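Sample intake sheet
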Amino acid sequence: MPLVDRVATASGFLFLGLTVFVLGQPGSPVRVSFDEWRAAREAKSTIAARWEEFSNSDRFVGMGNGPTLVEFTDYRCGFCRSFHDSSKALLTIVPNGRIAIRHIARSGDKIARGAAAAALCANEQDKFLAMHSFLLSDDTWESGPNWSAIAATVGVPDTLSFSACLSSGRVDVTLQQDSSLAASLGIKGTPAFASPRYGLHVGLLPNSQLVPWFKRDT
């Protein structure tokens, strides 16, 4: 083998060895970037394969029945409040669009979990959107929520049934399902947006960037 070819081959093996070494070092910038790329690719694949499961929520913001964006939210998340404010304008530029809501209710935060449960119990009486909007429009309730009084404020017609729903814990199953979906994507923050076309994004995005994230059924 000519010297030039031997040098080229040796250089190739050296580069390959260095690449393997660097990727094998936990915390190295290259390894972190590679891990993030791989996680993003896996999340996108999971969303595409299970899109019906992710988007098949009975909790929606927006009255349309067309293109859908999935949002994972937390009622004690300031950035989620910011997105809720901007989502009204977003839905005016996405014809017939809607946002499917999934909850991330941290088990260690009783108030956040109680808020998510309240939204689900309000949903049983077709008042999800009213409760959802109230919880994301005002944070004064966080200091000591009276859920029955809040339910009455947002127009839940039967507050006794609402309270019974909260006491029964029957919505815990739905909260666990949402948490499991979030865990399958490795979501660790909110708001988080899911789309089969673009995958997963955690954090706020300008409305102009979110428009193409809406998945069209046709």
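Comment: Residues 3-38 form one domain. The radius of gyration is 22 Å.
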